Hints:
A hairpin with a 5-residue loop joins strand 4 (182-189) and strand 5 (195-201). By secondary structure, the chain is an alpha+beta fold. The protein has helices at residues 2-63, 69-88, 123-131, 154-157, 170-177; strands spanning 99-100, 105-111, 114-121, 182-189, 195-201, 207-208, 216-220. The relative contact order is 0.15. It starts with a helix and ends with a strand. The chain is globular. The strands form two sheets. The protein has a five-stranded antiparallel sheet with strand order 5-4-3-2-7.
Amino acid sequence: MNKKLKVMSLALCGVLIAYNLGVTSVYAKSTNVSEKGEQAVSNRLNVEKEQILSDVYKQLEKQGKLDRYNIYKDIVESEFQARENDTMSLRSARSSGGYWAPKGMSVAYKISSASVLRIYMDKDKTQKYRNSSTVNSIGELSKYGIAFIPYGYGAIFATCSIAEYLVSSSAWKQIDNGTHCGELVTVVDDNELSRSTILFHWSNYPYADFPPSGATNISTK
């Protein structure tokens, strides 16, 4: 009887060892596949980021405002870093942290030596903006119900020109192929000697990005 129990015990140990080896092997393969998937996503995001930065450069170059490039670059890189972090933590980039704004919103803040206004437009507002060829400034967007300037920033942004951004650009292609939602980002330096506005694809709709760390005088509408 003892001999039979010993044999059964050895057999059970063998089964458990084989099972553990199998689990370890499956886990190793799963981890390897996961790492490859994350790298692929990271590579795709980097390509998308570089395309957007290239378009930002071209838009600023047309305005003669390349001195604002680094501010826009920081905004873009911050957004893509958040999207990559969300991906690596197994959360969808579309559910990343930010203001819940299915109907769009405006976010204004100060950072470095400039004031920044980010106007998030849902699909309907983006189409209105695209079709409103008579809109010449940020302040006029309110006439069409497209966007409103947050409290405390009207005097800074109301007269900023945006007429030239109604023309075709690669940003419109990204918008048409993506969420169909656009974002306008206007930067005004402290002396109001340099103003610029860039059109982006609001890829993270319906979430509007929180202002970056270090931002002050945050106001939303």
